[in-house]
């Protein structure tokens, strides 16, 4: 169960954020409304939410997930693979230090963005991507092992981040889309398969047995509901324009 979340208010500079989506420029005011709805949903799931102020120097900084990995035993500050995002980790470390005394760091030449890291109990699946390299993945595994946890590496084929296409909903249930439907590494899970036309909805999040799902993907929402979860739909259109999903917007622990 989670008790706490850290989020960061989007800055006006988000309109200059990194993207491959080709969905147009985000509407900043609408993004603020959507972000508030996201915070409200986390709060209603029982989390105490720390809201960091906007940082205009980093257009993608509202996607706090990528800058840190928060485990049961330690916090790990990442080293984002996107050069424009590396400076985000300084203020994330300040926020995280309020909750963790043991704080580790991924160092050059390693790069990790935690959108590539999927937690399943005390095991962490790490996606090799354009943002997370082998050196960073191996550093992360060593850190995890030092605290009694484990990690393994999965090579990605098409998606930006591992959690673009897969989400763990606890209880051995895995939401999967695209390349992850038949991944050997996930053979032992009970799978909720997202249809190709709703692939964006694979990035959903489990929060204390409620699952937050992006609005507008009815097949996926119904499949998750039919699997026994309470489902809350959140408008995410403006963050989708920046390749961002629900998991990207918070650190939950």
Class by SSE composition = alpha/beta
Classified by CATH, the class is: Alpha Beta
What coarse outline follows from CA principal-axis ratios?
A: globular
Main sheet overview: 3 strands, mixed
Strand order of the largest sheet: 2-1-15
Rg, Cα atoms, Å: 17 Å
CATH topology: L-arginine/glycine Amidinotransferase, Chain A
Mean pLDDT: 98
CATH architecture: 5-stranded Propeller
The residue fraction in helices comes out at: 10-25%
β-strand number = 15
Query: So how many helices?
Result: 5
Portion of residues in beta strands equals: 15-25%
H and E order: EHEEEHEEEHEEEEEEHEHE
Alpha carbon gap, first and last residue: 8 Å
Name the CATH homologous superfamily.
Answer: L-arginine/glycine Amidinotransferase, Chain A
What does this structure look like?
This protein has helices at residues 28-44, 88-96, 134-146, 218-226, 237-240, and strands at residues 4-8, 48-52, 68-70, 75-77, 103-105, 117-120, 123-128, 150-155, 166-168, 173-176, 190-193, 205-207, 210-214, 230-234, 251-252. The mean pLDDT is 98. It has one domain (4-252): 5-stranded Propeller (L-arginine/glycine Amidinotransferase, Chain A), CATH 3.75.10.10. The longest helix is centred in the N-terminal third of the chain and has 17 residues, at 28-44. The termini are close together. 21% of the residues lie in helices and 24% in strands. By secondary structure, the chain is α/β, with parallel strands linked by helices. The chain has five helices and 15 strands. β13 (210-214), α4 and β14 (230-234) form a beta-alpha-beta unit.
């Amino acid at each position: 169960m989670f008790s706490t979340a850290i989020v960061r208010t989007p800055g006006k500079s988000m309109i200059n954020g990194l993207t491959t989506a080709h969905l147009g420029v985000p509407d900043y005011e609408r993004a603020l409304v959507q972000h508030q709805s996201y915070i409200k949903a986390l709060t209603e799931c029982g989390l105490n939410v720390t809201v960091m102020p906007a940082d205009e120097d980093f257009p993608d900084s509202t996607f706090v997930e990528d800058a840190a990995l928060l485990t049961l035993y330690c916090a790990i500050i990442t080293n984002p693979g996107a050069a424009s995002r590396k400076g985000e980790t300084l203020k994330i470390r300040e926020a995280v230090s309020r909750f963790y005394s043991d704080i580790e760091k991924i160092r050059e030449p390693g790069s990790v963005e935690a959108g590539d890291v999927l937690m399943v109990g005390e095991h962490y699946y790490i996606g090799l991507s354009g943002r997370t390299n082998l050196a960073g993945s191996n550093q992360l595994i060593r850190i995890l092992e030092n605290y009694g946890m484990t990690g393994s590496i999965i090579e990605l084929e098409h998606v930006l981040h591992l959690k673009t296409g897969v989400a763990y909903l606890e209880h051995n249930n895995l939401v999967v889309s695209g390349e992850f439907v038949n991944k050997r590494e996930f053979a032992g899970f009970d799978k909720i398969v997202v249809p190709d036309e709703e692939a964006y909805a694979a990035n959903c999040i489990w929060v204390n047995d409620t699952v937050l799902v992006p609005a507008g993907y009815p097949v996926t929402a119904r499949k998750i509901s039919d699997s026994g979860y309470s489902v809350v739909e959140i408008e995410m259109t403006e963050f989708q324009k920046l390749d961002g999903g629900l998991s990207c917007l918070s650190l939950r622990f």
